[in-house]
Amino acid sequence: MSATVRERVGAASAFADESLTALEVAGREIVLVRHQGRFYAVPDMCTHARFPLHDGSLDDGKLVCCHHGARFDLETGRATLPAIKPLARYEVEVEGDDVYVTLT
Ligand code: FES
């Protein structure tokens, strides 16, 4: 069982809109996404063949894996083929200009 970890990952103003940023939080690799002003945090590992997601792209609210083209809905984690398993999503909070990610 892993403990909950909440960590400040940076200043909101430092992340451009429509950006993907690879970060490490409590020893885990994540991707912080800023899309239409909102933040999302997901594991930096595609559920298809476990390649990193931080070198992917954004398309219409979906995170697109550059390796075989799976798409993950940022709001729900829902996957499209060739990935089947949804992508986990971590809680992100913005307080003032500080961005916090909570891993559970
Ligand atoms: S590793 Fe992401 S689609 Fe295959």
> Major sheet: size, sense and barrel closure?
3 strands, antiparallel
Quantity of strands, as a count: 9
Helix content percent band? under 10%
Structural class: mainly beta
Alpha-carbon distance between the termini? 9 Å
The small molecules bound here are:
FE2/S2 (inorganic) cluster
**Portion in strands:** over 45%
Shape: globular
Count of individual domains:
1
Number of helices: 0
Question: In a nutshell, what does this entry contain?
Answer:
This protein is an all-beta fold and 104 residues long. 0% of the residues lie in helices and 46% in strands. It has a single domain (5-103), classed as Rieske [2Fe-2S] iron-sulphur domain (Rieske Iron-sulfur Protein), CATH 2.102.10.
General description of the model:
This protein is mostly beta strands and 104 residues long. It has one domain (5-103): 3-layer Sandwich (Rieske Iron-sulfur Protein), CATH 2.102.10. The chain has no helices and 9 strands. The strands form 3 sheets. A 3-stranded antiparallel sheet has the order 1-9-8, with no helix packed on it. A hairpin with a 2-residue loop joins strand 5 (57-59) and strand 6 (62-64). The radius of gyration is 13 Å and the shape is globular. The N and C termini lie close together (9 Å). The mean pLDDT is 96. It binds FE2/S2 (inorganic) cluster (FES).
